[in-house]
Every structure is written in structure tokens, then in C-alpha cells.
Design a protein that fits this description.
Largest sheet of chain B: 12 strands, mixed
Number of helices of chain A: 7
Strand content of chain A: 25-35%
Oligomer: heterodimer
Helix content of chain B: 40-55%
Order of helices and strands of chain A: EEEHEEHEHHHEHEHEE
CATH class of chain A: Alpha Beta
Number of strands of chain A: 10
Strand order of the largest sheet of chain A: 6-7-8-3-9-10
Distance between the termini of chain B: 33 Å
Helix content of chain A: 25-40%
Number of helices of chain B: 23
CATH superfamily of chain A: P-loop containing nucleotide triphosphate hydrolases
Structural class of chain A: alpha/beta
Shape of chain A: globular
CATH topology of chain A: Rossmann fold
Largest sheet of chain A: 6 strands, mixed
Structural class of chain B: alpha+beta
CATH architecture of chain A: 3-Layer(aba) Sandwich
Largest interface: A-B, 25 and 21 residues
Chain lengths: 227, 820
């Protein structure tokens, strides 16, 4: 088992209101699975993804990733965990405007203290895999949405992570570009990558091997797609 | 439009008090410091300019070019020259002689000193001094007395003192005077501002004092009023002929200056307008100040203003991108670019106006401080401030408002409204902001380097080796009595004071023109070398009191007959032994001090053997080179000293207590003469006071510059922090630790400071090196001031941004990613 969530709860507290974003989530994900998470806005999909990605902490519950119990780790250990195990793809791409595409992708390796030569090789390889190599020296603002998302995917896979998290990766793209991104994700999964994707698109969710439906902070359905 | 602008400013203030506060405070600080330093610069530039017809007023200075010494200009001239000048130059309209002297009046049983002197009656007319009481001919009667208003109040408690009698004590000589006028100053700063007492020059003084009857002696200043300012050039061009014609005489004459006086003696007209700057390099003038130092202070004020404007531009352009949506909506609703330009410039002007008013308040606080720091009587002239302030406000308002207004009004509404993120303002605006921060820190670091070097040099001068042991030494006032018995009595009384171990008399007057000078010739193997040497004399205790360092040879010995200086009137061809100072030995061509020992030097028929070389002893300004000197030996009061200066070595008693005891001993012998003892440091203090005072102004400027620059950096870091939350979220999501994020942000924030340091250090080095070159003795310009300035700037910049940096680095990535 790659991921095991037990009784995960996430509360948001403001001055006057306490909101339950996630309520008693139990979830297991095997290595090399491609899981799509669906549900209406505000149901807790992105919160769950953030907790899976360790960029948010659960209020209660346990999160095991392989041999690690992640809820027990401090900030520095979590940062180390992220750079060694996770790759992210966001709906709004989240590329840094001031860096070129090449530099944006390289950023995922910079924090691993990897030698420059090796980084260069890996970045070139990742750009090739998503078909963005010809845009290496461009800035994000000079690329189309589809190209930016492919660059974001390249950044997510360049470190060969054990898990790729995609938060509505096609949400800001037109149909054609959306299809291209899904095609890349499927290919990565075929090559063995574990992917968890939040999406609003039923057709894209159907491309995953398993689909989880959420409502009001809880998992209501978890089914395996027939592929 | 005005109401819209005001409303907008009020709302901005309510919504973003930090930004508005930083902007206004920075501008107020810049404007306040600019106004205060401009008042100081105005004070220095207006010195003497309140005199009526100041462009026609000149002081007659002497230029001495003695063999073996640098040419020096002295602020004094022999009074003997005046009748000849009036005779030879009909374009001299009027003249006045001033023999400055501290005069005493006994008040409530104790002697009170007043700055004043003996003057010609024409002084009131020549300088157009304003009289509170009395008439311009007040000094035409020999017992007349003109008091300043302050002096009248000190003596009588009122300024209405016409006809009252005052007994004036001039070094023990009493004279009764009737107050015939009271001056009220009131014509701006000038060299007579603190003159408190004027007495007509007594006839007997003219008869008895050499400076009234010889070319070779001077004791005061001659001021000339020319018929026209242009006459200066014509008179100046004829002064050499005048000296050749009037000052020449037989070589053995006491009155003239030899057959060719023009070879070593010249006269020159020193203008009174801007005389303070002229006097910076004139010997025996206490009022001199370097023009470039005053200009430098003015520049610091101007730079403070520029810094504040740069700050304002920076904050405004940084803030402007956050107002992009407001601009887009206004444009969508039909606002023209011109209307928006006017609005944003209007907002900048309103903020600058508020800052200007705060600046006046700050100026009010700063001016008394600057007056106290500089020792100058600077006050706020509201006419001047109110004339300058509108220009400053308009200039700063436009300078700080125009560019941000141009950026803001140029946003394309469709792009801004469609964009998920706020526009960054473009690379140009970003570069401008970086450039301005770099510029701010270049200025701040340069000023700090200047301040540190001034401080180091001043401290060095205070502690520099003066050639004698300063601790446990007190030096007294010159003894006015030339009665050998009185001198001996005072010597014995001082020696009997408990704690005193030795007492000596010397001449060591701080200015060479107060001492005897004589040209000596050394017949070196390469030919004769002529050097003009200052002559001091000492007794057998000199060595025990001053502890001069002997570099070669030996000190005087009373048991060796030839050591004692002969009385040339009785034995004109007698040989004598002398000791040279190091500079004297060098000028006479001796490479090493030991080379001089046993050599013979001659002055006319006087032949002297050099028995020792001592280290240079400095009793003069550190800016002036040491004058070559010679010491002779007169033990046991064998001949009378002329106005000797007593010095005392003591131990086991606190300095203040010893000063008190020596003062009592003095007054028991000379009860009617004010005499006081002070440390060598206190005596020398006046020479470095000016540099120290101006150093404090630079400190003030440096503090303000650093503060303004730090304010700007803080504002920018706050802005950058707000903009980079998202980026930091991405970086942390990719695995960056908080420490890595902090380091990244700090590098970014400190980069402009590092670049500024690389620019400021060479500039600071060039400026301070140039300033130091004016000193005869100076520090070696080492790396410490630069390291401290750069390190301090980095530390202050780091502290300024660290709060924002840590807050940004610790933000949870999930929240950070939602920030836009």
C-alpha cells in the first residue's frame, strides 16, 4: 500500500465560524494507481489533495505514505519528503513568471541539491516527454495555457516522484489541450506513475482507473473504472 | 477635482496607513533635514554679508615666504603700514585697526572676561554697526566705550547704560571708560557678532608697541573700505611695489624689512564677503571654514531630499500595481488618462504638502540641535523657510508623483480585469525601483563612510603624538608682566602648589607669527641652506614638564656654560648651543637627526652649535605643517621672558582641582589679571573643534539617510512580500524549506544594498581621501570605515526586511497558493 489515510479530519477556524472541510476520511491507494476525485465545489477535494501533498496538515487522523507516518513530521522533514516523493500539477499552472520554462522545471531539482549536469539532462528529458522542449527559454507569459500546463507536468515528473498530484489539471484548458494533458497523464500512469487527480470533468475522471466521489467533506463512492 | 483628490488621499490613508505613513514620514524627514541644513549653509554663506557695503570691505593680510618654510598667509598686518597705504592709495575711503584682546571687568568681586579690543573710532562707520544707543562718533573721545547689548546687560543688568562708567582691566592695566554707545548686532552673522567691548586705541599703546612702528611686527588687523569694489584689483596689483617702496631699508634696520622685502613679504586684500571660506587657509584666523565642507553639508541636505523623493517614487510605483484594478474600473467608467494623471499627481502633492508641514516641525526640532552641534548661532528664518518650502513641496510632489502617475494611468483596463494576477508594473518599473534603492543606499553608505572617516581622523588628532607627554600637564595663560621678579614670584608660587612636581616657562604660542623668527644658514657640503626658524626658549625644568622626545644628541645642561643662551647685546659674537626640532633639522638638509649634532648654523653674526634634535611638538592646527624650530636655553631667569607661558607637571591630584589650585596661586601674584590653566587637549581643542562639529552634522545626515533608505526598503519588502506569497507557496510545494526561502528572499532584498556598497566604497574612498589630504597629520585610510558602513547597511537592511521575510517563508503553502 502506498497511501493510507485513517480518520482524517480538517477543520478551518475563523473568529466566529468553524468549518469542517474533511470529515473522517479513510482511504487507501496502491502504487501505480490513477485515482480521480470528483465532487461539487466546496466538497473538500482540493483540501484532500493538499493534505495528500503535505502542503496542508490534517486537524486529526493519520497519513501513512509507504513506510512514513507523515502527520508526525516537522516542516523541514515534510519539505524533504515533498521534494523526494511528490510532483504537483495545478489548475492555474503555478509557474513562476520571472523564471523561464526551463528554470521553472529545474526548480523541482534545485532543492534536491542535484549536480547541475544531471539536472540539465533530466529537465531536457522531461520537456521532451511533454513536447515542450522548443519553448525552454520562453517565459510562462509567452506560452499558451496548454503549453504552460505541459510545462507544469514536466516540472511534476522531472524528479521522478512516487506520486503525482493533479488539481483540476484541465480546468483552465480548452477541449483539445485538455485532451492532450489527459493523454500525457495516462501515459505516465502506464509507465508506472501513481496519480491522484481532482477533476470536475466526468469524461476525464473516466480515464482514471479508480474514481472517488466526495460530498460535504466525506468520501461517498469509491469505484474502479472498467478500462 | 480637489475634493476627489483629498477624499482619495484620506481613503488611502485609512486603508493603507503603513504605506502612507512610510511615505509621509520619509518625505518629512528629508524635507526637515534639508531645511535645517540649508539654514546652516545659508548662515555660513551669509557670514559678514550684513555689513553695509560688504563688497567694498577688505582685510589686509600678510603673506610670508620665509626660507625653508611654506608660504603662509596671516590674518594680521603691521599697523605701521596703514598711514602709507592711505597716502599711496587714494581709492581707500576709510580704514580701521582692530587689536583684539580679552578685556576684564570686575563683577561682584570676580574678573569677568569680555571679547573685545582696541579699535579705531571709524569702526562703527566702516562696518555700519547698528547702535541701540549713542552716535557713530562714540569712540572719538579717548575714554569712550562701546558695549554690545549683551555686555551692557551682563555688567549693568540693562541696555540703557549711556554715560555709565566702567573700569576695564587689560592684563592688569586699569582704565576708566564712559559708555558712549551700545550696539545691538542685528546684521546677521559676522566676525564682530560676539565682539562685546570696543575701546579707542590709547596713544601710549601706539608709542610703546612695536607693531605700530615696525614692519616686522604685527599685533592686529587692518580693515580697508575702498571707494569702489573694483578698486581691489588695482590696489592688489600695486601692493608689491608698495612693499618694495615702503618696507625696504638697510638690513640692520629695526624698522624696515631689508633691501628686498618683496622676496619674503607681501600684502594682500582678503575680501570680507565669504571671508569665512577665505579664512580656512589663513593662519591666525579662528573663523575659517572650508567651503567644500559647507557645500558637502548642503549636499547631504539635498541628498536627504533626493532620498526621500526616491523613497516616495518607489513606494508609489510599488503600490500603484495594487491600484491597477481601480484604474481599470475608472477607465472603464470613462476616465481619461489625463484625468487620472492629474488625480495621482494631485494625491502626491497633497501627501508632500502634509510632509512639508511635518518637515517644518522637524526643522524646528533639528535647528537648535544643529546650532548646539556646530556652535553656530543658527536660528530659523521663517521668511526664508516659507520662500523655500513651496518650491520644495512642488518639486518633491512632482518628482515623486509624476512617474508613478504615468505608470498607473497607463494600465490597459481589459488586460488588468482579465488577468488572474495583478500586473507587476513591467520590467522597466522593476528596474527603476531597484535603481532607486541602489541609489538610496549608495548615498547612505557614502555619507556613513564620510562620517566614520571624519570621526576616526578627529579621534586620531586628539590622540596623536604631539611630541610631549600630555597627561599630568597643565598649561597656563601668557604672563603679561615682563618684570623678572614677578615672573620669578609666580614661578615659585606655582611650584609650591601641593601636587606640582615641576614648573617651566616657554613661548609655545600656537601661531608662528607670535614667536620670534630668524633665518639661519647651514653651510652644507652641497652649499648653503637657509631656513627661517621659529625660536622658543626654555628653562631647566622644560624637560621635566613637557618630556619632549630627544631624537639625537642631548638636552641642555645648566652646568655647561655654552648651553646658556648669551645676551647678544652684551656679547654679540658669543657662541651658543641650540636644539632643533625634527622639521628644522630636515629643512636644514640633515637626513638623519644624528647628522645634525655638532653642526654649526649662523644667523648674521650669531653662531650656534646644534647639540640635540627633538621630536616636533605641535601646538598648532593639525591642518598646518609643523614650522621648523629652534630651542634656546635660559636657566634661572637669567633674562626676562616676553609674555612667557607657564606649564606645570603634576600628579596625585584631579585635573579640575589642580586647575583651581593653580588659578588661586596665579591670582595671589597677579590679582588683576585673569589667568587660567588648562590641559594641552583643551588648548588644542579649538583646532579640531570645527571638524568635530561638522562631523556631527555628517552623523546626523548619515542617520537620516540610513533611516530614509531603510524606510524605503521596508516599504518595498512589504510590497514584494505581498506579491511573492504565491511564488513562495510554489517553491515550498516543490520542497523548499523555510530556511531556503528565507535565504532566497534575503538575497533578493539585500542584492541592491550589495550593489550599492560596490558603488559607494570607491566614491567614499575618493571623497575621504581628498578631505584627509588637507591634514598635515592624518590617518591611514584603512578598510574599517568601509567594512563598518557596508556591514551596517547590510545589517540594517537585513533587520528591516527580516520580519517580512520570515512571515513570508513561514506561510503555509496551501494558503499561499490560494493567495491570488
Amino acid at each position: 500500500m502506498l497511501i493510507e489515510l485513517s480518520h482524517i479530519q480538517r477543520l478551518y477556524c475563523s473568529d466566529e465560524v468553524e468549518t469542517t472541510a474533511l470529515h473522517d476520511i479513510d482511504l487507501q491507494i496502491e502504487a501505480s494507481e490513477f485515482v480521480a476525485i470528483m465532487g461539487p465545489s466546496g466538497c473538500g477535494k482540493s483540501t484532500l489533495l493538499n493534505i495528500l501533498g503535505t502542503i496542508d496538515r490534517p486537524t486529526a487522523g493519520s497519513y501513512r505514505f509507504g513506510e512514513h507516518e507523515l502527520t508526525a513530521l516537522n516542516e523541514a522533514a515534510l519539505a524533504k519528503f515533498r521534494r523526494e516523493n511528490l510532483g504537483y500539477v495545478f489548475q492555474s499552472f503555478n509557474l513562476i513568471d520571472e523564471l523561464t520554462i526551463e528554470e521553472n522545471i529545474d526548480l523541482a531539482l534545485v532543492y534536491r541539491n542535484m549536480p547541475k549536469g544531471e539536472r540539465r539532462t533530466r529537465v531536457a528529458h522531461a520537456m521532451d516527454r511533454v513536447g515542450i522542449a522548443h519553448r525552454a527559454r520562453h517565459y510562462p507569459s509567452q506560452l499558451s495555457g496548454g503549453q504552460q500546463q505541459r510545462a507544469a507536468i514536466a516540472r511534476a515528473i522531472v524528479g521522478e516522484p512516487r506520486l503525482i498530484l493533479a488539481d483540476e489539471p484541465t480546468g483552465n484548458l480548452d477541449t483539445e489541450n485538455g485532451a492532450q494533458v489527459m493523454d500525457i497523464l495516462q501515459r505516465l500512469n502506464d509507465e508506472g506513475a501513481t496519480i491522484i487527480m481532482v477533476t470536475h470533468s466526468p469524461s476525464h475522471a473516466d480515464l482514471a482507473r479508480r474514481r472517488i466521489d466526495m460530498l460535504d467533506g466525506q468520501v461517498v463512492i469509491s469505484v474502479r473504472n472498467a478500462i | 477635482m480637489l475634493m476627489t483628490t483629498l477624499r482619495s488621499v484620506i481613503r488611502q490613508t485609512q486603508r493603507h496607513p503603513l504605506y502612507v505613513g512610510l511615505n509621509v514620514f520619509g518625505l518629512a524627514l528629508g524635507i526637515g533635514l534639508f531645511l535645517a541644513l540649508t539654514l546652516l549653509v545659508r548662515f555660513e554663506y551669509s557670514y559678514n554679508s550684513g555689513f553695509r557695503d560688504v563688497d567694498r570691505l577688505f582685510r589686509l593680510d600678510t603673506i610670508a615666504s620665509n626660507p625653508g618654510t611654506e608660504t603662509r598667509e596671516y590674518a594680521g598686518t603691521t599697523f605701521y603700514a596703514l598711514p602709507f597705504l592711505k597716502e599711496d592709495f587714494p581709492n581707500i575711503e576709510n580704514s580701521v585697526r582692530i587689536q583684539e584682546q580679552s578685556l576684564q571687568v570686575r563683577l561682584n568681586g570676580t574678573l569677568a572676561s569680555f571679547r573685545g579690543g582696541f579699535v579705531d573710532p571709524s569702526i562703527l562707520e566702516v562696518f555700519g554697526l547698528r547702535l541701540l544707543h549713542g552716535l557713530p562718533d562714540a569712540l572719538s573721545r579717548p575714554d569712550g566705550l562701546v558695549l554690545s547689548e549683551n555686555a551692557a546687560r551682563r555688567i549693568f543688568g540693562t541696555s540703557d547704560v549711556m554715560g555709565r562708567t566702567v573700569t576695564v582691566n587689560n592684563d592688569g592695566q586699569m582704565s576708566r571708560h564712559i559708555v558712549t554707545a551700545v550696539t545691538n548686532g542685528g546684521i546677521g552673522p559676522n566676525f564682530l557678532s560676539d565682539f562685546e567691548m570696543m575701546i579707542p586705541i590709547p596713544i601710549e599703546r601706539e608709542k610703546s608697541n612695536n607693531c605700530y612702528s615696525r614692519w616686522s611686527s604685527d599685533c592686529g588687523n587692518i580693515y580697508l573700505k575702498l571707494k569702489q569694489a573694483q578698486d581691489q584689483a588695482s590696489i592688489q596689483s600695486h601692493l608689491r611695489d608698495f612693499v618694495m617702496r615702503r618696507a625696504s631699508g638697510p638690513d640692520d634696520s629695526d624698522i624696515g624689512l631689508g633691501l628686498h622685502p618683496e622676496k619674503m613679504y607681501a600684502l594682500t586684500l582678503a575680501p570680507l564677503r565669504n571671508g569665512r571660506f577665505y579664512d580656512a587657509h589663513v593662519v591666525a584666523s579662528d573663523d575659517g571654514v572650508e567651503r567644500n565642507v559647507i557645500d558637502g553639508i548642503g549636499l547631504v541636505g539635498l541628498l536627504a531630499l533626493v532620498l526621500a523623493c526616491a523613497n516616495s517614487i518607489n513606494l508609489a510605483t510599488a503600490r500603484s500595481v495594487l491600484r491597477a484594478r481601480e484604474v481599470a474600473i475608472r477607465k472603464t467608467l470613462g476616465a481619461t488618462r489625463k484625468a487620472l494623471l492629474v488625480q495621482f499627481i494631485g494625491e502626491a502633492l497633497v501627501l508632500t504638502l502634509v510632509a512639508g508641514l511635518l518637515g517644518i516641525a522637524l526643522c524646528e526640532l533639528l535647528v537648535p540641535g544643529i546650532a548646539s552641534l556646530t556652535g553656530e548661532n543658527i536660528t530659523i528664518s521663517y521668511i526664508f523657510v516659507l520662500a523655500v518650502l513651496p518650491v520644495v513641496i512642488l518639486g518633491c510632489g512632482l518628482a515623486s508623483g509624476f512617474y508613478p502617475a504615468l505608470v498607473l494611468s497607463g494600465y490597459h483596463p481589459a488586460r488588468v480585469l482579465a488577468a488572474a494576477r495583478m500586473p507587476s508594473g513591467g520590467r522597466m518599473v522593476g528596474r527603476l525601483r531597484d535603481g532607486l534603492v541602489i541609489g538610496q543606499f549608495v548615498i547612505a553608505i557614502t555619507i556613513v563612510i564620510g562620517m566614520l572617516v571624519i570621526h576616526q581622523q578627529t579621534e586620531f588628532l586628539k590622540r596623536a603624538d604631539q611630541g610631549f607627554v600630555r597627561s599630568g600637564l597643565l598649561i597656563g595663560s601668557a604672563i603679561p608682566s615682563e618684570d623678572i621678579a614677578t615672573q620669578q614670584r609666580l614661578h615659585d608660587r606655582l611650584a609650591s602648589v601641593p601636587g606640582v612636581s615641576a614648573v617651566t616657562y616657554g613661548m609655545l604660542a600656537p601661531s608662528p607669527e607670535d614667536k620670534n623668527q630668524m633665518t639661519f644658514t647651514y653651510d652644507s657640503p652641497a652649499g648653503p641652506i637657509r631656513v627661517n626658524l621659529l625660536q622658543d626658549r626654555c628653562d631647566e625644568n622644560y624637560l621635566d614638564v613637557y618630556h619632549p622626545r630627544i631624537l639625537a644628541g642631548r638636552w641642555f645642561d645648566a652646568s655647561r656654560g655654552q648651553d646658556t643662551h648669551p645676551d647678544y647685546r652684551k656679547t654679540p659674537n658669543a657662541m651658543s648651543n641650540v636644539i632643533l626640532n625634527e622639521t628644522g633639522a630636515q629643512r636644514l638638509g640633515f637626513t638623519k637627526p644624528t647628522d645634525a649634532i655638532g653642526k654649526v648654523i649662523k644667523s648674521g653674526s650669531h653662531v650656534s652649535t646644534i647639540i640635540g634634535v627633538m621630536a616636533d611638538m605641535r601646538f598648532e592646527s593639525p591642518r598646518q605643517s609643523i614650522y621648523p624650530g629652534l630651542m634656546t636655553f635660559n636657566p634661572h631667569f637669567s633674562t626676562v621672558f616676553q609674555q612667557p607661558i607657564p606649564a606645570v607637571r603634576f600628579s596625585g591630584v584631579p585635573v579640575l582641582e589642580m586647575e583651581r589650585r593653580l588659578g588661586l596661586a596665579w591670582s595671589s601674584v597677579l590679582p588683576d589679571v585673569e589667568g587660567h590653566f588648562q590641559t594641552a587637549d583643551a588648548r588644542l581643542e579649538k583646532f579640531y573643534r570645527g571638524d568635530e562639529q561638522r562631523g556631527r552634522i555628517f552623523t546626523l545626515g548619515a542617520l537620516a539617510a540610513v533611516m530614509i533608505a531603510a524606510l524605503g526598503l521596508y516599504g518595498l519588502s512589504a510590497f514584494a512580500a505581498a506579491r511573492r506569497v504565491h511564488e513562495m507557496g510554489i517553491r515550498k510545494t516543490l520542497g523548499a524549506t523555510s530556511l531556503q526561502v528565507i535565504m532566497l528572499l534575503l538575497r533578493g532584498f539585500l542584492r541592491p544594498v550589495i550593489i550599492a556598497s560596490l558603488i559607494a566604497c570607491p566614491i567614499g574612498w575618493a571623497i575621504t581621501r581628498n578631505w584627509l589630504s588637507e591634514f598635515d597629520e592624518r590617518i591611514l585610510l584603512g578598510p574599517m570605515p568601509f567594512i563598518i558602513a557596508v556591514g551596517g547597511a547590510l545589517a540594517i537592511a537585513g533587520l528591516t526586511v527580516i520580519g517580512q521575510t520570515i512571515r513570508l517563508a513561514r506561510a503555509e503553502p496551501a494558503r499561499a497558493l490560494r493567495s491570488e
